[in-house]
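Anyone? Bumping this.
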Amino acid sequence: MSAEIEVKSVGKRFGGGPPVLAEIDLEVRAGEIVSVVGPSGCGKSTLLRILAGLDRKHEGQVLVRGRAVDGPTRTVGFMFQEPRLLPWLSVERNVVFGLDREHKNHGRNGVAELLAKVQLDGSEKLFPRELSGGMMQRTALARALAAKPAVLLLDEPFSALDAFTRMHLQELVLGLWERSQLTMVLVTHEIDEALYLSDRVVVLSERPAQVAEVIPVPIARPRDRREPALLALRGHLLEKLRLAGRKPSPPIEYEI
Amino acid sequence: MRDLRSSLVRLLLGILLPALLLAAWWWSSDVAHYFTENQLPPPERLLSALRELNRQGDYSRHLLASLRRVALGFGAGAGIGLVLGTLVGLSRTLEHIVDPTLQGLRSVPSLAWVPFLLLWLGIDEGPKITLIAIGAFFPVYINLVSGIRQVDRKLVEVGEIFVLNTRERVVEIFLPAAMPYAITGLRIGLGQAWLFLVAAELIASTRGLGFLLIDGQNNLRPDLMLVSILTLALLGKSADSLLRLVESKLLGWSDTFGERR
C-alpha cells in the first residue's frame, strides 16, 4: 500500500525560540487511522497544522498523495478542538458551507444524508448557540466530510466533551471511516481513545518533539474497550509515554 | 401571550418618563405659571401651533423635506462607510494610506464645513445632503473597520481550511462576523445624520425642521421651536427603532448578553 501522507524530517520553531519539532519522519498509509500522543505542549497540534498546510513556516517537507503541501487543500479536511461553526448559519447551512462551489450552487445534495449520518436530522434549522457540545462537534464533522476529503485530520476533537458523548462520537467517526476510504490522523491526549480508534499510535517525545515510538494496534474491529490485548497495549503505551516525557527536559532554574 | 405582555410592559416603562415630563411641563406652565408663555408655552399651545402650521400644509412640507435629506444623506454616507470600512478593514496597506487622513477629517467640527459646502455646492440640497452624509459616514466606517479587525482568527482559519477565495472569505466570513459592529455603526450614524440635518438646515434653508426651529427663534415663537424639537425627537427615536428591528432580524444568531431573552 502506498503512503497517503509522508512527513519528511519536519522541524519547527516559533520565531527565534527553541525547536518545537525536530526531524519528524512519518508515513501514513491510505485508509489508515493513526493517533499522535505525547506530553502536553509537545507540539502535537503544531504537527497537525503543518500536515494541513495551516502552518507553512517549517523545515522539511510534507507530501499528501505525493504532492508537497504548501497550503490547505480540499483533499485534506480538518476538525478543530473547538467546533468553530459559523454562528450566523444554521446547522444545515454550516454543513453546506463545507460543500465545494459547484455543489453549493447546484442542489446541495448529500447534505441531508450527511446530517442523517451524524444523527442531526431534525436539527437542521437550529443555530450553533442552541446546540450542545456534542451536537456542535457532530455538525463540524459533517461540515468537514461535506468537502469530501481523502484525509481527515482531527485535533483533539472530543477533548471538551463528557465521557459519554465522547464515546458516542468515537463510534460515529469509526462508523463513518468504515464506510469510506478516509485516512485519518488524530491528535489526542486520551490514551484509551488512541488505542481504541487507531491502527498505529505515534508517541512523540518532550520538546523538541521527535517520534519516540510507533506502536501498532493489531486488533480487529469492532473492538471491545475492555479487550485484554488492548489493556496490555495500554500498559506498554503508558510506559513509553512516561519515558518520552522524561527524556531531554533541561534542568529547571528559578529566577526571582 | 407572554411575549405580548412583556412588550406591553416595556412600552409602558418607556412611556413613563415622557409622561412625567409632560405632566411637569403642564404643571409648571399652566397651573403654577412658573414660566411665561414666551419662555415655555403650555402643551396645548403646541397643538394649536401645529394646526396653524398645517393649514397651509407647512408642517408636512417641513417634515418631508427633512426626511428626504436624512434618507439621502444617510444612505450616501452609510453606503460609502460600508464599502470603505470593508476595504480598509481587510487591507492594512489601504489603512495606512487612507486612515490618517480620515481621522484628521473626522476631528473637524461639522459646522466648519458649511461655508465651503455652500461655496462649492450652492445653497440648494447638495450641501445639506453632503453634510449629513459626512456625519453618517464616520461612525459606520470606524465601527466596521474595527469589526472586521475583531473577527475571530479561528473562523478565518475555517475559511482557509475550506480553501475559500477572497470574495468568499469576505462575504461568508468577514462581513457576517463584523455585522454586529456594522449595525452599531449604522445606528450611531443615523443619530449623527439627524444632528447634522439640523446643523445643515439652520443655515440657508427655507424648509425643514431645522428651518422651523430658526424661524420660531427669529419670530419669538417658542411653540414652533418646540414643535420642531419634539418632531425631531420622535423621528430620531422611530428611525432608531426601525434599525433595531433590522438588527434583531439580522443578529438573531448571536449568543450574547444583549440577546438573552
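Late reply, but here is one note on the structure posted above: The mean pLDDT of chain A is 90.
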